[in-house]
# Entry
Amino acid sequence: MAQVVFSTWGRNVVDNRNVSGEPQAVSFKLPVAFDGERPLRSFMGWDGIILFDKDVDVPAMTAEYMKRVQTLYCCGKCTPGKKGTKVLADLFQNVLVGKASEADLDTVADLAELLKNCKCTLCQSATVPVFDAVTHYREDFVSYIKGGRTPKPTNYIHKITAPCMDKCPAHIDIPKYVEEIKNYQYGEALATIRENMPMPSVCGRVCPHPCETACRRKNVDDAINIMVLKRTASDYEWQHKLVPPMQPKPAKNKKVAIVGAGPAGLACAYYLALEGYKSTVYEALPEGFGGGMIAVGIPAYRMPRHILQRDVDIIASMGAEIKYDMRVGKDITLAELKQQYDAVFLAPGAHRSKPMGVEGEDKGYKGFLTGGIDFLREAYMGKPTGMGKKVCVVGGGNTAIDCVRVALREGAEESILLYRRSRKEMPADSWEVDGADEEGVKFEFQVLPTRIVVDANEQVIGVECVRMAMGEPDASGRRRPEPVPGSEFIVECDTVIPAIGQDPDLSFIPPDMGIDITKWNTVVTKYLPLKDAAGKDLKDGMGNMLSRSLITDCDGVFAGGDAEIGPLTVVACVGNAHRAALVIQRWLEEGKAYLSEQDIFDDLLTYLGVYDKGENVAWLDSASRANQKEIHGKERASKGNYREVELGFADSTAQTEADRCLRCYRMAMVAV
Amino acid sequence: MAHTESCEIKSATLTIDGKQVTVPAGTTILDAAFELGIKIPTLCWLKKVSTTGACRICVVEVEGVERPMTACNTPVKDGINVTTSSPKLEQIRKKTLELMLVNHPLDCPVCDAAGECDLQDACYGLQVVKNPYGAELERLPIRYDWKLLESDPNRCILCEKCVKVCREIVGREAIEVVNRGDRTIIDTITGEPLDCDFCGNCINTCPTGTLISKPFKFRGRPWTFDVTPSICGFCSSGCQIEYHSRDGRVERVTSSDDSYNKGNLCVNGRFGYAAFNSSGRLTVPLLKDVEGNQKKASWDQALGTVAIKLKEIIAANGGGAVAGIGSPRVTNEESYLFQKFMRGAVGTNNIDSEARLGYFPAQVIQYEMLGYSGGTYAMDAIENASAVIVIGGDLKGESAGFAYRVIQAATKNDAKLVLATARATSMNKFANAFLQYRPGSESWLVAGLNKALLAEGLENKEFIQKSAKGLEALQASLDELSFERIAEITGINEAELREAARLVCSGGRTAVIYGADIMRATDMKSAVTAVVDLALLTGAVGTTGAGIFPLDEKNNTQGMLDMGICPEYLPGYHTYAHKAAAFGAAWKGTIPTAPGKDLFQIIEGIEDGQIKALYVMGSDLLHVMPNRNRTLKALQKLELLVVQDLFLTETARLATVILPAATAAEKAGSFTTVDNRVQCFPCAVAPAGDARTDGDILTKLYSLIAPVTNIVSLSPQALHQEITDLTGLYSDVCDHDGCRMGRVKSKAAFVNHEATLLPLVPAAPVKGDPAYPFDLCVGPILHHNGTLSTWSDNNQIVAEQGYIEVSEGDASKVGVANGANIKISSAIGAVTLKAKVSNALQTGMLFVPSHSRESQINLLMGNVRGVVSVKIEKA
# Structure
């Protein structure tokens, strides 16, 4: 078990250098080996230093850290940052070559204090571990100053990050694009976004924006409105009829097949195209419905179709051929794709509704619909949905909310949502629930449907429900909702739509291809054997292995998106597919599918956590968060009215909002 | 993270250094302190651009907030308690400056900015006398390879003012912060030499000697120059400037951020002064001898000759045998004197100017429809417009000051911008819609916009009901035009027109700007009428609108017309019938009461022998008139051609007498912008050589030939009084001692008028001769202004001359590469110019800048406005 030799992480000093007896036990959310193989010797970053290996040369590491900050990341846009880190970097270089004096070390404290006035946090946070090093390893610095010591060659790896950027599954360089908007550089901002997000208009509108939950401005007042700023940059381009500036590299002679034109498939196609790899995307839906779940799962009042189509068209124009009406497994087999292409990327999404486990659901009753996702798709495609006038939707996620709101727009006289827990426990985004509320949706919380009630013609006339109450805490201490005996009642309706979740449909993957599928019906991909100090596997928030290269057990076949992660979000699929594109490129060029050090570092930082909600951020809370305007009133959900509800920012509002950003860059560096 | 709109708090009351102040919400601490007269030191702060927060000098303490906050970019909060000065803050400021000085070159003795360096001042002010910090010295290369500018990044303090001015004011984005760490510098993004507007606004804003003007480098220490406030004599924006002069030469031009134009100039304003110092300046009068050679002469000889010859001609043929061409370059006072001389002394109303080619007839139409000419508001109103439409003009080419205002509106105030121009311009990147109509289809295009606006039901009903008549007739005339027909002629379809109409009306506060392509359009009357109709339908000219603005390339076209340089009107647009007697009485004589000949009629008059003498003041007729050969023949036929100019122009080369005149820097007076601002300025330097101001020349001549010599010693004040009394155009108050906004031009308030919407019947397009399939357009470009700037070495360095812009498709069709020669022929002539292959043009369209004296593009132009049908071939 790895032992922490010394740490100041979290501003908490743990010093096991010279302890007799039991060393102080401490562990961090870090693997014992950087990539599962090379031991993690030290970690240096915004919050201090952590040494796992007593032989790490602290002065050399410190000098290297400051040099990288100054020469690679310091933006030069404020005096203390630009000049202060230069003075520090040169000072430490002088230490290493014996040209410094002990008095110079005192300048470190002086500058650490002065750099608190930096414009952003990169240079400022960089002084934290540096100051710690000089303070706690002063004798090592002094021995360099006195001469006679030379640094041993050490392998350092660094990574620039920010809390928001880390939390974003696509790792968009959020502070950069926010600053560009602040500087009226909408084109540049969009280019920054597109480096990691090829569907900016989509994620500027419907992203659940996990980044905002990790915004350091929250520690002052409210998070920056990161999502709407993304929309601003994206809308600016089409509102000014500007031609996207991306230029793909010259075409290379290898090609890739992609299953599914959803966010994952399109993102993978886009990043491959930029590198010169043409891909063919096989999409089961007909032309005009590119975008996968975005197209048929997210209603047009949230994501106007012409704007989605614009993003799809841009991706196609980069060099992705989308073949519509082509269901892999039916119109062409996976084996054929594998044979015809140099690599195959599976991104079929999760379009199959889950059953809800209620009496009568399998009887084929009139008015009982297959599932929320099917309802949304058919409504959007203009097909008969089978919906009546009084609609009950069962579920608590965003799809359920989309269903009740679409039901109104499809002409339902009454639209009711049944959910077994309370409002605040709904997994749906709170603003979506508020939106449904405003449009006149009725809610029945803490109810469990038990039986579908039908008339003699097997037409649904209601749902029998039972009230739920919180039961006694179980072994894990969590209280689960339990039915209240005798509380049965019937909600009258002519339509029931279960919307309790989706599964990938992986029936197109033949069992003989060697592609493993999990019990949650997702595709298994290869991963690094990252383990914590206790020997346990590191896993991500979805319970998947933390660091996956996205290649399946079948050579040349990769998988991503909802079908690999499990049903999640557009941004997660895009981030995952972007990585897949990078790995596929390595596979095509080097014959090896592997993760780069930067990929791994991304995963490590996410696991460690870059945002600290307990951090005291000293700042004047005088600029409050701007929110986009929206159309209000029930009329916005009137029959056939799919007009966009949220209206985005005026550019001037975006500029002011962007100015709230604290630009929380920071650099991490490890020795391996 | 609520997804509902924020509620707005309107104001905040806070305490700064113990004093309370209430300011609007969103105000920065710096501005709030300023309200209290508390000055917080800054280096990177610049009022006219967005905040930067780079220098960190402006730190203040806010009670309850652990870290010092930068005052320049921190908005106030109600109830906060701010301290702007404390030992801790002073210490931070001092140390920050010390850091700034790490590796800063100690070349102050030879630095151009010494004496006006903010860094010097800040160090001096905060007594930064030592530097405890040090780092490895690494010198970055100085950019000597830029034109007009030089950049020494070693002196840069990364305040970003230059970058922001370039991006936010000028809209160019030519320079950017590049590289990392201590090597961070301001440079072009590509590292290539600077290629930009060359407005030099970055130089003006640079607090150190990083960005400097090459022409000014080593011309002298800043404090040794005489600084004279003045008004720029190039375009019609009328920017307020300062001439820095020494030994009778203007050596640089600057502008203060406190000026109306916020210190922003264009290449002409900043660098065009080199024309004043041109070796081509006329410095002595010239007289044509019997052999036809123009020889140096004394003023007495020259003026005596003019007087004698004029008197002879008048005696033999009457005043009507004399005509005068006025100048959009000279002051109002000089224009007034010119027409007074022509009308009062010579006895002729044959007075006109190059404004006849577009601006003047357009303003007559505007006057007839609206009740006034020129811009209806001062141009800063544009910044607060919610929508701006620019029709038929390259905004930066014609009047950069207007372009800057539009950029502010579009980028900072959320205005929607519609550009309706035949060629793409540098404004395109800000546009929400670009209607690239076919050259020559202006009247149809604007009629189409009116039609689309009415079809969308977007007309400002309240305004029209109250203030404009004629809607039914307009609607009826538009009903006669189909969108299909409009699309066929203009290339702009119904959907595009409707979208543009919606944008033009968005927000309800519209500004309508129209340029030379409208005023010089083939069907100019319909085109201008349609523009004014549009301004009425949108309510742009109403009290809640943002105005209508005609553009003109030259500095005093509007003032010249106000002063009666036209055959139809006396100064102040008074008719002869009403005011000839009054003017005559004031001038102690009689003046002719019949309207005189206009520009075209004057040429015809010369041709048929009626006009024998022509007095041309500050106008190169051979260059500005269409049909160069015809003009040349006419001028050659004259018995007397007097040319009063700065340079030996092509026209001057034909003159019997050449009178050397003075530049805008060499005289006092006033200019009137197209938006009707009358700005006075004092004299900065004496006229070059023996040159005299136009006013002096005219005064002298008047005394030589007038029947009553009453104006010999007319003082500026008396002259001003006379103009004010007779024209009724100005308010009385004017402080001639350096005032720049002295006189207010009175325009009857619009509420007293009823405007007229006129029906639109655009002329059917003329079927082009298939032998000449290309549409040639001629107009101004950014790096020049008229021909004046072509005498400026500075402008010549950055702007190539005498080229023809041709679209990529046409260039490859004709088989010419960029830089190759093209022969352009029309029915009446041919010229050969260098090709500039461009993606700003639609196929079938050609463009030639109007500035080059060598191009002689008017050899191709018949006696018509608008586009010229030409063919092109490889030369």
Remarks:
- Confidence is low (pLDDT under 50) at residues 1-7 of chain B.
- The longest strand of chain B covers residues 830-838.
- Chain B is about 30% helix and 15% strand.
- Chain B touches chain A through 65 residues (CB under 8 Å).
